[in-house]
Amino acid sequence: MGDANMVINFKKRALYIISIMLVLLLIIVHPDLLKIYCKYTYYEPVLIKKISIPYNKNKSIEKVFAERHHICSFIVDNDKIYAISCTQRLGGGNRSLLFALDMNSGKEIWRMWPTRIRFKGVDYINYFSNLYFDKMNDRLFVLEPKPKEKPSYFYSIKASTGEIIWKYPLSYNGKIFFDGDKLYLTDGSNFIKFDPDTGGIYEAYQMPFQSYRIYSLSNYGRPFIIDGKLFAYCEEEQELLIVNLDDISMNPIDPVTLRIKINEYILSSLVLDDNILYFSTTDKAMIAWDLSKNKKLWEYTEGGGTYYSPIIYKNSVIFYDERYGRSLIAADKKTGEIKWDIEFNLDLSTSMVIEDQTLFIAITDDKNPLANLKETSYICAINPNNGKVIWKFKAEDEVISFKILNDKLYCSCIDGYLYIYRISN
Fold first, then answer.
1. Which own/partner contact pairs does 350-353 have at CB distance under 8 Å and 24+ positions apart?
2. What would the pLDDT profile of 223-245 be if each residue is shown by its tens digit?
3. pTM score, two decimals?
4. Is the CB of residue 286 less than 8 Å from the CB of residue 310?
5. How far is Cα 136 from Cα 76, in angstroms, rounded to an integer?
């Protein structure tokens, strides 16, 4: 009997050890499982790499701040970075670059342009949201930023070499969109559906309305696509027009399926969730609009809107109030009841990001960089469930854009560097 018990105990222990080994092996093969089954924590950033834009190493511009490029928009793919940059000359004479970098060596793989662009204030940022990467086909899709009075192009580029595959001339500074595998372009009042492989046009329509063309930090005044719907804001009527893309070919004369009378200027990009549209305006930090009833569901009137999109998290909508206290606020997305708010008294400097149940924001003061006053800028990690600040990290300079990828924080600052931080334990 004793020997039999020993055999049974030995088998139990062996099964236990084998089970542990299998779990460990599974975690090694699929480390993301830890994030699913455990509470994942991002730690305060530790700098592991600082990459300079090669163009800035030119001796003639290295010490002239207004001539230095900073990255406005970028895509990380393994050990490569594809980016659009711009100089900081306000009021004219800016230059833009499209380039690819080897992240390990920091060397430039290829470069397009530079092109000269002319903006008012910091309106240049809106031009650089037009960068898309098709990894499967090794392609970049990008709009060339130029002054309105000069021609510019919509490009398809081979990402690995910078070779132009095809280009399409623009009448205006347009906007490109992907909706699934469909590629669209708005060019003034023209709406065009492309074959992404050849640049051929599948369908083209001229909209019976003229959207408000002011180029600012957001998609303000630009048509854009959400869930198969085309949205366009018209200044004259101060209303938002909605077109179902599936219906546009059936009724090209008047394809507008819904008109929303806003009576205010929309600032942020739109967010659609459960047929409710969320956005901010010049006088309201957040408006929730029920599309099914075409009526306002609720609004937050105590603050002022921001250029950056709200974020939907579980049953909350998270947004930033740029006016009173410059606060981050979470509200019930159906009722507008405030769940928590944090007063920062700093400006939001770029779009917010949610990653693994952690909210990341970049905030900064409003010093003028051209006056050689260095910005005080922070990146904060926040628990979106209760608004608790997990950590607040001082960045090297004003944050232009950032991404969270593979437990790393990629941060582009106005000083012309891309900083890479480790944020895992």
1. 350/308, 350/399, 350/400, 350/401, 350/402, 351/308, 351/309, 351/401, 352/308, 352/309, 352/311, 352/318, 352/320, 353/402, 353/403, 353/404
2. 667 777 878 777 677 788 887 77
3. 0.82
4. yes
5. 14
